[in-house]
Fold:
Amino acid sequence: MKQKWRNERMKNRRKTERIILHHSLSGFGDVENIRRWHTMPPPAGHGWSDVGYHFVITRDGITQTGRDVRLVGAHAFGRNRDSIGVCLIGNFHKYEPTYEQVEAVTRLYHQLCRMYSKSLKLEFHRPHIFNLFEPNDYQIFNACTGSKMDRCDIREQCAKADPYGEVQT
Ligand SMILES: [Zn+2]
Structure:
């Protein structure tokens, strides 16, 4: 039964409207670290079929391929059906993404817009569920993508890289 559910998640995405950015909360690592964490059986991991993100961008700006970009990802509850998940390595509660990461996101954004022949929306992940009893704890451990990422100019850079010139900043 569980296997059936896992297989059902690995479906082709019918629509692609947006790119949702995440941070890893860790100061180091790459797609293989996250893949292990996502695929290990619970409680150590999520027990998924593959890493939930479609792309991971390392601290030095290398864009790594995660889950096949055509498939539905597992990165933003309730919003996976029409989005591509991109995770930047880092804890953006504490510091900003590196210059190389911003460059890499910009290039990836441009490529994906070209791939889907349209201007994709660019969003920062905002978890929908809050722990009402321990709001601060929840924020420390789960909030994505961190206030420092909002302040850097990813949105502005991507708007410039939009081949169709329609993305809103
Ligand atoms: Zn996230």
About this structure: Residues 2-161 form a domain with the Lysozyme-like fold (CATH 3.40.80.10).
